[in-house]
Predict the structure of SusE-like outer membrane protein.
Amino acid sequence: MKLIYQLFAMLLIFSLGACEKIENKNYLMDGTRPVLTGSSTAVRLQAGEENNVAIRFSWTNPNYKFTTGISSHDVKYKLEIDTLGANFNSSKKYQAIFTNDLSKTYTVGELNNILGNTMRLQLDPRRSYTFQARITSSLGVGTDAVPLQSDIITFTASPFPPPPKVEVPANGTLWATGDAFASSWQNPLPAPFSTTQQFTRISTTKYELTVNMPSGGNYKLIQTQGDWGSQYHMLPGGTWAGGELEKRDADPGFPGPPSPGNYKITVDFQLGIFSVVKL
């Protein structure tokens, strides 16, 4: 009988210990929405001042609190910038992720490049835009647990054309060659393809070509006849209808369209993109 009492006592102690562990679980109690501020509401963007500070965003720590006290977990912050009226739903919005930082400073060159190239704003003629910004905090680096969002702040800026995202053809000339055209893979291109497959320079950073394409195949863009080393190729993720490009002697090329016809190919080196439209 004494042994039974001893076993019962041990079981009771174990049960009380287990209950105590359950009661001491670490629960999230609350947090405070971060407060976002900007160092300027009218940002000055001028060519020649690229190294100057354009704007500094600062935000407060949300101070996530658990039953055991203030959290020591990493806090992730997502900064978003979009044009007024887009409500942060634009496909061209900018966002950046920071871990534990409570501020970010952008130079004139950095911000101007974001607004002009990353957000792909039309900068010709130069005009003033109103932008919105907000910060969202969350717990953890790889998750978005317990998100807390700041109020929205606004600022104005007049971006100027930044350096092109992709280097423009050195001599202002551009051709397409490959088996997506009647020429097939020839470089240099003989007549008449040296003319029918040469792009027209629309501006310092934009080129267009209207050409018949038989369907299928691939092609590349060359800026110098007989030279593959300074060519342009499509970046992964693009399709026959459009995508991004870079200057590099590498695969893949650009895929031809799925059906024959006349097409207009537009290459925008300012934004580093191309598009193909059937006429």
